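Re: your question from the hallway

Yes, I did run it. Sequences:
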Amino acid sequence: MRIYLPADAAAKALGAEAVAAAVLREAAARGVAVDLIRTGTRGMIWLEPLLEVETDAGRTGFGPLTVAEIPALFDAAFGDHPKALGSVERIPWFAQQTRLTFARCGRIDPLSLAAYEAEGGLTGLRRALAMSDADIVAELTESGLRGRGGAGFPTGIKWETVRKAQAERKYVVCNADEGDSGTFADRMLMEGDPFSLIEGMAIAGLGTGAEKGFVYLRSEYPDAIAVMTRAVEIARAAGLLGGDVLGSGRAFDMEIRAGAGAYVCGEETSLLNSLEGKRGVVRAKPPLPALEGAFGKPTVVNNVISLATVPVIFERGAAHFRDFGLGRSRGTIPLQIAGNVKHGGLFETAFGLPLGAIVNDIGGGTRSGRPVKAVQVGGPLGAYFGPDQFDTPFGYEEFDGQGGLIGHAGLVVFDDMADMGAMARFAMEFCAVESCGKCTPCRIGAVRGVETIDRIRQGDAAAIPLLEDLCETMKDGSLCALGGFTPYPVLSALRLAPEDFAPRKEAAE
Amino acid sequence: MPAPAPETDEIDRIVADHLHLEGPMLPILHALQAAFGHVPQAAVGRIAQALNLGRAEVHGVISFYHDFRDAPAGARVLRICRAEACQAQGGAALEEAARRLTGLDWGETSADGAVTLEPVYCLGLCACGPAAQLDGALHGRLDATRLDALLAEGVA
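Structure:
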């Protein structure tokens, strides 16, 4: 009997290891031969640990499981059970998705290169190996892919700049410093389908003339570091990485580098400084990293999801990808639905769904059952959206038009118990703690922001225009998105719930 | 000149092991912390010499990053996620419980060296918060009762 069970960090946090041990123990006690395959997660986090059994009719699921429920599962011969979900891929939450980037995640053993190839892996790289560098970049540009890390910059244009740069050495750097609260797509992808990132980086190397890649992976993700490190070793042993990529005579190799707990290193220039072994301080641009990036050499810096989406673009063609989406937001986007939400997880779909449909129809509303008060979109630097903005379609320009950003496509749902004044204060406090210190608006502004919000919450309403003015200075005067975007959550919280900035009877802390 | 601490040879060996890398600083610091539980003060000068940097530059790098410790952590390390997604689902109550149960404030280690309490800003468990990490193991949908049980479990 073949059983699949995720070894994803979220599944583990919900007890997957104990369930795995119970399955093996029960199987041994009953003399049942079980082939237990650990996978990534399908992304339906509210059903984790979600166990799947291979049947003639595909995989049937059971979840969320506890250790105590395992004997009954064997008693029922993995049939009728209170936690039976039927065919996993027919669960509406899953069936409604368009899985391009995450097609294999949750289906295969992440470290089986054979399984990866059997589900379409390496097709894109083989195709790219037969193309010229200019054609590779043209194909990517044609796909309309934009940076999934948050900035939304057209990936093809970035690659073209690096391709045209003259240098004896170039780099591909994957930004895997996914520090934004509410986002976990990078983690899930790296733990569930690491070869897709490796393949994407190899194609980036072919297109731009870079022979060396780095994945800068945050230290808060030990599972992802372990899986990626092992996957690189396997890829190297199989000739996918190294001096002769798949026998093509072309070279590309890569290393996994762990971050060290600095949020600002998710910003590409401070990431590069950190990679070089310096303080993770932001660099002024220009020069663009595409021309003077890692170690002063032309460097592609792309997010995990951007790079992991490259293989499927080359496998199915640019048009297949481009034909999904809305306006200038092409392709699919892995929405990460998080916070106080009933059906939280990763939902990959074409751009264009209205925010309200994501929160209420897909997310199922709040887990607490209380009304939604706010949804923070795009991480700690993203704006809080209220139910009055729920018709905003999910797209870069559409969210920008509403005074927000989609960022890395994380959505954090808050119910009506949330204190938006406290959340605004937290945003400033976080910025103060994590500021790299290079520019004044961020370094000093965030500290003054905390103080000003405290003044307002103590009853000094006259300080509200001061806060707004400070936010404007931070927005326009900061070197990077940390200081520049912290005003988004602050001002949107103020817009959404001015009453939460009024003095409260009980002290804040 | 003070006699070299017994750990100096080990520091030099770790530093030397990483010198072939491009940008070896962070890998060296991670390796030192893995070996000693912190980055020993004695390493600053050794790294500076090996990488041809000033001691102040090395100190500047070490002190920039939250991860690197100047003293070993407690026997157990409890990290509570304080980021927005966990706050949205009862994180504040968990934070309070963690402080009450350990008797510590953020960044403190108990006097007997048993526990260190730290904040962490996102473990990527945003759809199953509030989340925490205890001795490396991840836990989702935690509340005060379960945290209490987890803390009790590990005490031998």
